[in-house]
Design a protein that fits this description.
The chain has 74 residues and is α+β, with helices and mostly antiparallel strands. It has two helices and two strands, in the order ααββ.
Length: 74
């Protein structure tokens, strides 16, 4: 996943690359193929654990890890 670019729905990609956020003015999709890289980098920065992609036949599962908090001290 991190090394391949594959578009399943070109119509959706085209639409999102032209649609701008009213709040920020940025487009929702800046360039094709950046999403997986961003998910991996941001996910690891948040939880210190790299997100995992797993393929089961035609099904894809993405696991995003929660940020671990230190245990509470009583």
């Amino acid at each position: 996943m991190p090394y391949r670019t594959f578009t399943r729905n070109q119509l959706l990609v085209s639409f999102l690359s032209r649609l701008r956020s009213k709040r920020t003015g940025q487009v929702f999709l800046q360039s094709r193929g950046e999403g997986v890289r961003k998910i991996l980098e941001d996910g690891e920065a948040h939880s210190r654990r790299r997100p995992e992609y797993e393929l089961f036949g035609d099904e894809l599962r993405l696991t995003l890890w929660a940020k671990c908090l230190p245990p509470a001290i009583d």
